[in-house]
Design a protein that fits this description.
CATH topology of the largest domain: Diaminopimelate Epimerase, Chain A, domain 1
Strand content: 35-45%
Number of strands: 17
Structural class: alpha+beta
Largest sheet: 8 strands, mixed, barrel
CATH architecture of the largest domain: Roll
Radius of gyration: 18 Å
Number of domains: 2
Order of helices and strands: EEHEEEHEEEEHEEHHEEEHEEE
Distance between the termini: 24 Å
Protein backbone atom coordinates (compact mmCIF):
# COMPACT_ATOMS: atom_id res chain seq x y z
CA UNK A 1 0.00 0.00 0.00
CA UNK A 2 1.46 3.42 -0.93
CA UNK A 3 2.20 5.76 1.93
CA UNK A 4 -0.83 7.85 2.87
CA UNK A 5 -0.32 11.04 4.86
CA UNK A 6 -2.68 11.33 7.82
CA UNK A 7 -3.28 14.54 9.74
CA UNK A 8 -4.29 14.04 13.37
CA UNK A 9 -6.51 16.49 15.26
CA UNK A 10 -8.64 16.53 18.39
CA UNK A 11 -12.14 17.90 17.75
CA UNK A 12 -14.55 19.69 20.10
CA UNK A 13 -11.73 20.93 22.30
CA UNK A 14 -8.90 23.47 22.48
CA UNK A 15 -6.66 20.96 24.28
CA UNK A 16 -4.91 18.23 22.24
CA UNK A 17 -5.34 15.91 25.23
CA UNK A 18 -9.12 16.41 25.18
CA UNK A 19 -11.85 16.06 22.61
CA UNK A 20 -12.20 13.25 20.09
CA UNK A 21 -9.14 12.43 17.96
CA UNK A 22 -9.74 12.22 14.22
CA UNK A 23 -7.60 11.34 11.26
CA UNK A 24 -7.86 13.48 8.12
CA UNK A 25 -6.59 12.40 4.69
CA UNK A 26 -6.85 14.82 1.74
CA UNK A 27 -5.90 13.66 -1.74
CA UNK A 28 -6.71 13.95 -5.42
CA UNK A 29 -8.50 10.59 -5.33
CA UNK A 30 -9.70 8.22 -2.67
CA UNK A 31 -7.55 5.19 -1.93
CA UNK A 32 -9.30 1.84 -2.34
CA UNK A 33 -11.83 0.77 0.27
CA UNK A 34 -9.34 -1.80 1.55
CA UNK A 35 -6.63 0.84 1.89
CA UNK A 36 -8.91 3.33 3.66
CA UNK A 37 -10.04 0.64 6.09
CA UNK A 38 -6.42 -0.37 6.75
CA UNK A 39 -5.37 3.25 7.38
CA UNK A 40 -8.29 3.84 9.77
CA UNK A 41 -7.44 0.66 11.67
CA UNK A 42 -3.77 1.66 11.93
CA UNK A 43 -4.62 5.20 13.07
CA UNK A 44 -6.97 3.71 15.65
CA UNK A 45 -9.15 6.78 16.21
CA UNK A 46 -12.95 6.59 16.25
CA UNK A 47 -12.92 7.79 12.64
CA UNK A 48 -10.61 8.90 9.88
CA UNK A 49 -12.07 11.13 7.15
CA UNK A 50 -10.91 10.76 3.54
CA UNK A 51 -11.48 13.83 1.33
CA UNK A 52 -11.18 14.38 -2.41
CA UNK A 53 -12.10 17.66 -4.15
CA UNK A 54 -15.19 17.71 -6.38
CA UNK A 55 -15.50 21.45 -6.93
CA UNK A 56 -14.56 24.81 -5.48
CA UNK A 57 -14.44 24.34 -1.68
CA UNK A 58 -16.42 21.11 -2.12
CA UNK A 59 -15.25 17.60 -1.25
CA UNK A 60 -16.43 14.01 -1.45
CA UNK A 61 -15.90 12.62 2.05
CA UNK A 62 -15.92 9.06 3.36
CA UNK A 63 -15.46 8.06 6.99
CA UNK A 64 -13.88 4.87 8.31
CA UNK A 65 -13.72 3.64 11.89
CA UNK A 66 -11.14 1.00 12.87
CA UNK A 67 -13.71 -1.71 12.06
CA UNK A 68 -16.01 -0.39 9.32
CA UNK A 69 -17.09 2.51 7.11
CA UNK A 70 -19.69 4.78 8.70
CA UNK A 71 -22.07 7.02 6.71
CA UNK A 72 -21.32 10.25 8.58
CA UNK A 73 -19.02 11.42 11.36
CA UNK A 74 -19.37 14.82 13.01
CA UNK A 75 -16.08 15.16 14.84
CA UNK A 76 -14.00 14.18 11.79
CA UNK A 77 -16.04 16.68 9.75
CA UNK A 78 -15.17 19.45 12.21
CA UNK A 79 -11.50 18.42 12.19
CA UNK A 80 -11.33 18.29 8.38
CA UNK A 81 -13.07 21.65 8.01
CA UNK A 82 -10.55 23.28 10.36
CA UNK A 83 -7.70 21.88 8.26
CA UNK A 84 -9.27 23.21 5.05
CA UNK A 85 -9.95 26.64 6.59
CA UNK A 86 -6.34 26.91 7.69
CA UNK A 87 -5.18 26.01 4.16
CA UNK A 88 -7.72 27.89 2.04
CA UNK A 89 -9.03 30.54 4.40
CA UNK A 90 -12.21 30.63 6.52
CA UNK A 91 -15.58 30.48 4.84
CA UNK A 92 -18.03 27.89 3.61
CA UNK A 93 -17.33 24.34 2.44
CA UNK A 94 -19.51 21.49 1.23
CA UNK A 95 -18.94 17.85 2.12
CA UNK A 96 -20.71 15.24 0.00
CA UNK A 97 -21.23 12.31 2.38
CA UNK A 98 -22.77 8.88 1.83
CA UNK A 99 -26.11 10.22 3.08
CA UNK A 100 -26.12 13.60 1.38
CA UNK A 101 -24.45 17.03 1.34
CA UNK A 102 -23.35 18.66 4.60
CA UNK A 103 -22.61 22.38 4.65
CA UNK A 104 -19.83 23.69 6.88
CA UNK A 105 -19.10 27.27 7.91
CA UNK A 106 -15.68 28.15 9.34
CA UNK A 107 -14.58 31.32 11.09
CA UNK A 108 -11.66 32.54 13.22
CA UNK A 109 -12.26 32.86 16.96
CA UNK A 110 -11.11 35.67 19.22
CA UNK A 111 -8.52 33.28 20.66
CA UNK A 112 -6.97 32.72 17.23
CA UNK A 113 -8.29 29.24 16.49
CA UNK A 114 -10.82 28.15 13.86
CA UNK A 115 -14.39 27.21 14.77
CA UNK A 116 -16.36 25.04 12.35
CA UNK A 117 -20.14 24.59 12.20
CA UNK A 118 -21.71 21.72 10.28
CA UNK A 119 -25.35 21.68 9.19
CA UNK A 120 -26.69 18.15 9.09
CA UNK A 121 -28.75 16.51 6.39
CA UNK A 122 -32.51 16.65 7.09
CA UNK A 123 -33.06 14.69 10.31
CA UNK A 124 -35.58 11.97 11.12
CA UNK A 125 -36.94 10.78 14.44
CA UNK A 126 -38.74 7.50 15.13
CA UNK A 127 -40.12 6.05 18.38
CA UNK A 128 -37.93 3.17 19.53
CA UNK A 129 -39.60 -0.24 19.63
CA UNK A 130 -39.99 -1.68 23.12
CA UNK A 131 -38.14 -4.83 22.08
CA UNK A 132 -35.13 -2.80 20.94
CA UNK A 133 -35.09 -0.71 24.11
CA UNK A 134 -35.34 -3.78 26.33
CA UNK A 135 -32.54 -5.53 24.45
CA UNK A 136 -30.23 -2.52 24.72
CA UNK A 137 -31.05 -2.05 28.41
CA UNK A 138 -30.08 -5.67 28.99
CA UNK A 139 -26.71 -5.05 27.31
CA UNK A 140 -26.16 -1.99 29.51
CA UNK A 141 -27.44 -3.74 32.64
CA UNK A 142 -29.96 -0.92 33.07
CA UNK A 143 -33.61 -1.30 34.06
CA UNK A 144 -36.60 0.61 32.75
CA UNK A 145 -36.72 2.42 36.10
CA UNK A 146 -33.31 3.92 35.31
CA UNK A 147 -34.75 5.87 32.36
CA UNK A 148 -35.92 9.48 32.59
CA UNK A 149 -39.64 9.45 31.68
CA UNK A 150 -39.42 13.03 30.39
CA UNK A 151 -37.17 11.95 27.49
CA UNK A 152 -38.70 8.98 25.65
CA UNK A 153 -36.45 6.42 23.93
CA UNK A 154 -36.17 7.10 20.20
CA UNK A 155 -34.18 6.40 17.08
CA UNK A 156 -32.66 9.64 15.76
CA UNK A 157 -31.00 10.32 12.40
CA UNK A 158 -28.97 13.28 11.15
CA UNK A 159 -26.64 11.49 8.77
CA UNK A 160 -26.42 8.26 10.78
CA UNK A 161 -28.85 6.45 13.10
CA UNK A 162 -28.51 6.60 16.89
CA UNK A 163 -30.64 5.33 19.76
CA UNK A 164 -31.38 8.01 22.37
CA UNK A 165 -31.77 6.79 25.95
CA UNK A 166 -31.95 9.19 28.90
CA UNK A 167 -30.88 8.25 32.43
CA UNK A 168 -32.68 9.66 35.48
CA UNK A 169 -29.47 9.82 37.51
CA UNK A 170 -25.99 10.97 36.55
CA UNK A 171 -24.57 8.05 38.54
CA UNK A 172 -26.18 5.64 36.06
CA UNK A 173 -24.36 7.32 33.20
CA UNK A 174 -21.10 7.60 35.16
CA UNK A 175 -21.05 3.86 35.90
CA UNK A 176 -21.49 2.85 32.25
CA UNK A 177 -20.30 -0.60 31.24
CA UNK A 178 -21.74 -3.00 28.68
CA UNK A 179 -21.40 -6.31 26.88
CA UNK A 180 -19.35 -5.25 23.83
CA UNK A 181 -20.03 -8.16 21.45
CA UNK A 182 -23.69 -8.49 22.41
CA UNK A 183 -24.37 -4.79 21.92
CA UNK A 184 -22.34 -4.70 18.70
CA UNK A 185 -24.40 -7.49 17.16
CA UNK A 186 -27.65 -5.83 18.20
CA UNK A 187 -26.65 -2.43 16.84
CA UNK A 188 -25.50 -3.89 13.53
CA UNK A 189 -28.85 -5.66 13.16
CA UNK A 190 -30.67 -2.37 13.90
CA UNK A 191 -28.35 -0.22 11.72
CA UNK A 192 -27.37 1.96 14.67
CA UNK A 193 -24.03 3.80 14.66
CA UNK A 194 -23.90 4.74 18.36
CA UNK A 195 -26.07 4.91 21.43
CA UNK A 196 -26.70 8.49 22.57
CA UNK A 197 -26.93 8.04 26.34
CA UNK A 198 -27.85 11.32 28.05
CA UNK A 199 -28.46 12.87 31.44
CA UNK A 200 -30.02 16.33 31.69
CA UNK A 201 -27.73 18.53 33.79
CA UNK A 202 -29.70 21.76 33.24
CA UNK A 203 -32.37 23.32 31.02
CA UNK A 204 -30.05 23.37 27.99
CA UNK A 205 -27.10 21.26 29.15
CA UNK A 206 -26.71 17.49 28.87
CA UNK A 207 -23.98 15.06 29.78
CA UNK A 208 -23.70 12.34 27.16
CA UNK A 209 -21.85 9.08 26.54
CA UNK A 210 -21.75 7.17 23.25
CA UNK A 211 -20.88 3.47 23.05
CA UNK A 212 -19.54 2.72 19.55
CA UNK A 213 -18.92 -1.04 19.33
CA UNK A 214 -19.91 -1.20 15.65
CA UNK A 215 -16.79 0.87 14.92
CA UNK A 216 -14.57 -1.28 17.09
CA UNK A 217 -14.46 1.45 19.76
CA UNK A 218 -15.76 1.02 23.31
CA UNK A 219 -16.75 4.67 23.69
CA UNK A 220 -16.61 7.81 21.57
CA UNK A 221 -15.27 10.92 23.41
CA UNK A 222 -17.29 13.39 21.29
CA UNK A 223 -19.93 12.47 18.74
CA UNK A 224 -21.02 15.27 16.42
CA UNK A 225 -23.36 13.08 14.36
CA UNK A 226 -25.20 11.95 17.48
CA UNK A 227 -25.26 15.53 18.76
CA UNK A 228 -27.07 16.63 15.59
CA UNK A 229 -29.50 13.73 15.89
CA UNK A 230 -30.13 14.61 19.54
CA UNK A 231 -30.86 18.24 18.66
CA UNK A 232 -33.49 17.02 16.19
CA UNK A 233 -34.87 14.67 18.85
CA UNK A 234 -35.30 17.53 21.33
CA UNK A 235 -37.12 19.59 18.70
CA UNK A 236 -39.37 16.69 17.63
CA UNK A 237 -40.52 16.01 21.19
CA UNK A 238 -40.91 19.67 22.14
CA UNK A 239 -38.16 19.45 24.75
CA UNK A 240 -36.63 22.74 23.62
CA UNK A 241 -38.24 25.94 22.41
CA UNK A 242 -36.55 26.60 19.08
CA UNK A 243 -34.53 28.50 18.15
CA UNK A 244 -32.39 27.11 20.92
CA UNK A 245 -28.77 26.39 21.71
CA UNK A 246 -27.87 23.37 23.81
CA UNK A 247 -24.52 22.27 25.20
CA UNK A 248 -23.39 18.65 25.29
CA UNK A 249 -20.57 17.67 27.65
CA UNK A 250 -18.95 14.38 26.69
CA UNK A 251 -15.77 12.39 27.25
CA UNK A 252 -15.03 13.41 30.84
CA UNK A 253 -15.42 9.88 32.17
CA UNK A 254 -12.78 8.54 29.76
CA UNK A 255 -10.30 11.38 30.23
CA UNK A 256 -11.00 13.35 27.04
CA UNK A 257 -13.46 16.12 27.99
CA UNK A 258 -15.32 17.60 25.04
CA UNK A 259 -17.82 20.40 24.52
CA UNK A 260 -20.31 20.43 21.65
CA UNK A 261 -22.65 23.33 20.79
CA UNK A 262 -25.90 22.37 19.09
CA UNK A 263 -28.16 24.98 17.48
CA UNK A 264 -31.75 23.95 16.84
CA UNK A 265 -33.80 25.92 14.30
CA UNK A 266 -37.60 26.20 14.68
CA UNK A 267 -38.34 24.48 11.35
CA UNK A 268 -37.37 21.05 10.04
CA UNK A 269 -34.01 22.20 8.72
CA UNK A 270 -30.74 20.46 9.50
CA UNK A 271 -29.22 20.79 12.95
CA UNK A 272 -26.06 22.87 13.40
CA UNK A 273 -23.19 21.50 15.49
CA UNK A 274 -20.13 23.64 16.27
CA UNK A 275 -16.68 23.11 17.69
CA UNK A 276 -12.98 23.74 17.31
CA UNK A 277 -10.15 21.33 16.54
CA UNK A 278 -6.45 21.35 17.35
CA UNK A 279 -3.50 19.31 16.06
CA UNK A 280 -2.32 16.31 18.06
CA UNK A 281 1.39 15.76 18.58
Amino acid sequence: MPEISVLRLAAFTVDPAGGNPAGVVIGAAHPSDREMQAVAAEVGYSETAFLTPVGERAYRVRYFSPAAEVPFCGHATIAAAVVLAERSGPGAFRFDTNNGPVGIDTRPTAEGSIEATLTSVPPRIEPAADALVDAVLACLDWTRDALDPRLPPARAFAGAWHLVLAAQERATLAALHYDFERLRALMLAEELTTLQLVWQAGPTTYRVRDPFPVGGVVEDPATGAAAAAFGAYLREYGLVVAPATITLLQGEEIGRPSRLRVDVAPDQAGIRVSGTAVPIG
